[in-house]
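Good morning C.,

I know you're traveling, so I'll keep this short. The sequence:
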Amino acid sequence: MQRVTDLADPHRCKGANSIGQCDHVAADGSDYCLACNGVDRGPVRRMRKYLLAAAEDQKLLDRYATDDELKSLREEIALVRMMVQRTLTMATSNVEAVNAYSKINTLLLTLERLMKTCHALEQSLGQLVGKPALLRLGQRLCQIVVDRLEGVPNYEQLVDVMIADIDAAFHHLDNTDPAVEVE
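The tokens, ready to paste straight into the viewer:
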């Protein structure tokens, strides 16, 4: 088989291999060389990759469907995130990535709705504590300290320092702080 001398040759085989487009001259009356058997193998490889990924996804979905512990919004959120990642990694070219954007956009909108719903449910169930509730807790802790130390010599100075520390800690809380380990 003859190789093309110019990569822009209009008679270049349109087949694809693992390193890119085939560099042989196409057979007469075909867009593909004899080695490519007149068939572009790229779509076949992409379909195989898709079917393998779909089979892995199906196994994972079956596991989620049968496991009672995983039936929650948080796991649904994780599943949608996995689907976004899978969709991004399945794209092997810029064209496929652009074609995947509408699916990714739909998945991201679904993810946003799931996260808002999860947050609202956790808040309504009392699983999330707001800053005002934490400040009330801090005030209650300070009162407990005062009550317990009352009668100890110079307890007022100890209480003032402890209350100032507790107050400062509660006023500087935000969601980016790492989890505090309890000893």
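Safe travels,
E.
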